[in-house]
Amino acid sequence: MREVAPAGSASLLRSLRPRRWDAISAAVVALLVLPEIHPRHGGPGSVAFDLAFAVPLLWRSRWPFGVFLVTAGTAFVQWILGMRVLGDFALLIALYTVASREDRRTALTAAAILEVGVILALARWFHDAHIRSFIGLTGLIAAACALGMNVRGRRLVLESLEERAARLELERDQQGKLAAAAERARIARELHDVVAHNLTVMIALSDGAGYALRDDPDEAERALETAASTGRLALAEMRRLLGVLREDSDGRTPERDPQPGVPEIDRLVEQVRAAGLPVSYRVSPDARDLPEGLQLTLFRIVQEALTNTLKHAGPSATAEVEVLAAGADVTVSVADTGPRLSAHPSVNGGSGLRGMRERASVYSGVVEAGPRPEGGWQVAARLPLLGAEHEPA
Fold first, then answer.
1. Chain centre to alpha carbon of residue 379
2. Rounded CA gap, 282 and 250, in Å?
3. Distance CA 206, CA 227 (A)
4. Full domain range(s) for residue 88
5. Which partner for 219 in 50, 212, 359, 367 could form a disulfide, CB atoms 3.0-4.6 Å apart?
6. Is 392 a residue whose pLDDT tops 60?
7. Number of compact structural domains in the chain
8. What is the per-residue pLDDT across 176-214, written as a single tens digit (0 to 9) for each?
């Protein structure tokens, strides 16, 4: 099995790669000057100039333009002394490095400096074939500069693509986190509605069973049985909601029960009646054919409003529930005849009314809650049907 180098080793290799090529380029220039070491071809001065050209190339990746200026200065001293050496080839390597690592203006400046050097060299050493030599040396300068610029352009494109890929990956992770947070908020809202309502019904049934235990044991038994069935129903709904957080081992999401809608309001009303609150209920036939998401919103609004009625309306209160779909809107109203109140716990910072408004806002709807002039409390919501056939994501 092939071993994969850790990320730290890979980054170390990438950092050493430019230095390796610097050493190779310096070695190439040094090999070119080997013939000049022989006394017939050169002397100590030639070798010194060749080394002066080769050694700075060891740092060309770190200081491209600085190394170029050093080699250009060495060439100028060589020109003044009138010595011709093979180490001049280092000027093309230095120019290529500047073009591949610096901006266009710096590269053109370096090419212009080297072109001036070509003119000076032609004036001193190439009197006979100066036109042909000028064209050849200028072509080498242009080739080195163009090659370096091309390498730099490709590197910038690759860096831009890598940066874009990293940014897209970051945005994908952020979108995933936002989606997860939205899903957690949705599940928390569903759990609040389920738990709050069912626990309120169970508490009311348990209190009623306690009062009727001595006078009417059969009634107390029926209340306890209803409380038990309500608890089992609440547990089943909680399992269904929490099931969206789990996946099977094969990666498939588990099957989910249908979400409650307008038809389930009938069962909800019967449950509240069993808890001791008389409820009258009226629903228009068209409301049972609304989109599933909108029906779930209507169901949760009615559920939360009836839960608040059970908590705060008092033992002698009654409630009226209306769900009407007419024209371009669907309206839901839950009113009770409890004591006249100027404030209500659901208004003073409770999460119930906030949850109802959040649900309604998904469909551009509004929820209003407040005391009724004749006494009691009313929750009214209006949701537009326009565009409701397109379920929000």
1. 38
2. 46
3. 7
4. 7-125
5. 212
6. no
7. 2
8. 777 767 766 666 666 666 666 666 777 776 777 776 666
